[in-house]
Write a structure and sequence with these properties.
CATH topology of the largest domain: Aminopeptidase
Shape: elongated
Order of helices and strands: EEHHHHEEEHEHEEHHEHEEEEHEEE
Strand order of the largest sheet: 1-2-3-4-5-6-8-7
CATH class of the largest domain: Alpha Beta
Mean pLDDT: 91
Largest sheet: 8 strands, mixed
Distance between the termini: 43 Å
Number of strands: 16
Oligomer: single chain
CATH superfamily of the largest domain: Gcn5-related N-acetyltransferase (GNAT)
CATH architecture of the largest domain: 3-Layer(aba) Sandwich
Strand content: 25-35%
Structural class: alpha+beta
Number of helices: 10
Length: about 325
């Protein structure tokens, strides 16, 4: 039986882990952690009987979409990768074949708290987009499975589905379900800039008809140059540009950032010092990968401020000295 896994050169190595297709010999290694109560609680199919588990594990339909995760030769988890069709109308149905994937995972709780699951699933999603050239990856979980959906959010996946008591748990009864997904362009944006891109509206005309816009205006010695810096930093569209003032805005939402040229502009000092020009405000931007976002900002001309008050925040200075913060929630 051919499998999407056949298109990938194995094994795949991350900083600390090795990922490879599962074999029949992996049944006992995966059984050891899948029977643990904290894992069994949330996996789709569990069993207290090894023979029953082995029969399911050895079935070709399951083995062909299962990967195992090794740490120094020890199997510490498994991954599921199931390439599938998207939905489409009949006239374009041929373009929906094998364009997306569902992913899943289970990990040995003895190795939790060290980022191994995040590292492995991150690599799995990367394979989907960078090797298999898929357009969308999605995953589902019970809403009570907090560890699972928090992992998805750490990887930049978007919660796009919340179903109410539609999922039957083997002991807890009917529970809410969550569905998360990420698109290829969102993933690539996060990998290159550290900031999650969001899909724009179906029609730009709809966005431009809004009349409840709000924004922030920054003084600058060169409004156009500063606007281009923020447009590159945030992947926002420049909506107007001129020598005296320029503006930019995201593809979705109703907020904008404007820059106006001020010949007498004085660069602020941060942290503030007596007798020096103080900042009047600073900008905050949430990112999904702080080190990568900082690297991206510096490549565009920003500086990392000397004083950093929080671990999950990096205070930056734009090319004109305005402080702005990149942060993770």
């Amino acid at each position: 039986m051919t499998s999407a896994l056949d298109a990938i050169s194995w094994p795949v190595r991350t900083d600390r882990l090795l990922i490879r297709p599962a074999t029949h010999d992996d049944v006992e290694a995966t059984w050891r952690f899948r029977r643990r109560p904290v894992v069994y609680e949330w996996i789709t199919s569990g069993s207290g009987d090894f023979e029953e588990y082995a029969a399911r594990f050895h079935h070709e339909s399951r083995l062909s979409r299962t990967l195992v995760v090794e740490l120094d030769g020890l199997v510490i988890g498994d991954l599921m990768l199931s390439v599938e069709d998207a939905w489409g109308q009949a006239e374009v149905e041929d373009r929906t074949k094998n364009v997306q994937a569902e992913v899943g995972w289970a990990f040995d709780p003895s190795h939790s708290g060290r980022g191994y699951a995040t590292e492995a699933v991150d690599a799995l999603i990367g394979l989907c987009f960078e090797v298999l050239d898929l357009r969308r990856v999605h995953a589902n979980c019970f809403s009570d499975n907090v560890a699972s959906w928090r992992l998805m959010e750490r990887l930049g996946m978007r919660r796009e589905l919340h179903t109410v008591r539609d999922s039957l748990h083997r002991t807890r009864g009917w529970l809410d379900g969550y569905g998360y997904a990420v698109l290829a362009d969102e993933w690539r944006s996060r990998r290159s800039t550290g900031r999650q891109a969001t899909p724009g509206p179906a029609s730009r005309d709809d966005r431009d008809q809004r009349h409840d816009w709000w924004g922030v205006v920054l003084d600058s010695p060169d409004a156009s140059k500063l606007a281009r810096f923020y447009a590159s930093l945030l992947d926002w569209r420049i909506t107007s540009e001129g020598p005296d003032d320029s503006a930019l805005a995201p593809e979705d939402g109703v907020a904008y950032l404007a820059c106006q040229t001020s010949p007498d502009y004085v660069r602020p000092v941060w942290p503030s010092e007596p007798g020096e020009q103080q900042m009047m405000l600073h900008l905050d931007f949430e990112v999904t990968d702080l080190p990568r976002a900082v690297e991206h900002a510096v490549s565009l001309g920003a500086e990392v401020a000397a004083h950093q008050p929080q671990d999950n925040v990096r205070v930056m200075l734009d090319p004109d000295g305005h402080p702005f913060c990149l942060y993770t929630s």
